[in-house]
Amino acid sequence: MNFKIPIFDVKNLSFALRENTILSNISLEIFHGEYIAIIGPNGGGKTTLIRMLLGLEKPTSGELKLFGKRISKFKEWHKIGFVPQRASLVDENFPATVQDIVKMGRIAKYGIFAGFSKKDTQVVEDAMRKMDILHLKGKMVGTLSGGQRQRTMIARALASSPEVLILDEPNTGVDMISQRRFYKLLSKLNKEEKITIIFITHDIGVIADDITRLFTINQKATICNNPKETLSCEDMSILYGIDAHLISNHKHNCSGENGC
């Protein structure tokens, strides 16, 4: 039994839009230091769940606590860094450097009128260094590759010194080599910086190596405490409602007439 206070404590959470049920009776806990992947079909409610965790949507029913406080009383949003969908898809003519973008994350923590101290500058540089983009700080963000823009947006989130980092399908528009690098960076942030990581992904075949738990969301939630053993063709077929074929580097196999 875990007696620690969860970062996110979700109980019987439901969300409906125009009488259309998006999420139904979701209950889950997320603790400090976890590395969690969320998967599920399009329209299954993954992004809606994240938006409720961020206070951007109000549940139709249920209870949500952040760091032990009811979400209506929670004010320390700088503890949660967020990288939204398509964050790496930037207009090529956007007039900002990498450093400008990352500084926005620091400004978001203290406000635009708080000034920018030497400590703030150091935190911004540290965030860029962690994402291996410090050498790009003077580059216009629109000239970067998809992977470089992805890391810039993560650095912006890190500039607020968050305890939690939430990413919604961050690999959109990013090539396979950059994706592999991205997962290594996430794992490093989790293990070395002790940042709790939560991310939505469709990359089912590459997520099980490091994550501590897997949440499958399709209106309802299933919590997988041992992702390496849980991922299977049958599981994915049930989740996505199709005849799933997993392509993975893991050493477990799926048997049956459909194979993998």
Describe the secondary structure blueprint for this structure.
Layout: E1 8-17, E2 20-30, E3 35-39, H1 46-53, E4 61-66, E5 69-70, E6 80-83, H2 98-110, H3 118-130, H4 146-158, E7 164-168, H5 176-192, E8 196-200, E9 213-218, E10 220-224, H6 227-230, H7 233-240
Parallel strand pairs: 3-8, 3-9, 6-7, 7-8
Antiparallel strand pairs: 1-2, 1-4, 4-5, 9-10
Helicity level, as a percent range? Answer: 25-40%
What is the domain total for the residues? Answer: 1
Shape: globular
The largest pleated sheet is described as: 6 strands, mixed
The ordered H/E elements are EEEHEEEHHHEHEEEHH
Q: Segments where pLDDT lies below 50 for 5+ residues?
A: 242-260
Q: What do we call the CATH topology?
A: Rossmann fold
The CATH superfamily bears the name P-loop containing nucleotide triphosphate hydrolases
Counted beta strands: 10
The percentage of residues in β strands lies in: 15-25%
Strand order in the largest sheet:
6-7-8-3-9-10
Structure description:
The chain has 260 residues and is α/β, with parallel strands linked by helices. It has a single domain (8-240), classed as P-loop containing nucleotide triphosphate hydrolases (Rossmann fold), CATH 3.40.50.300. It is 29% helix and 23% strand. β9 (213-218) and β10 (220-224) form a beta hairpin. α3 packs across α4. The longest helix is centred in the last third of the chain and has 17 residues, at 176-192. The model is unreliable at 242-260 (pLDDT under 50).
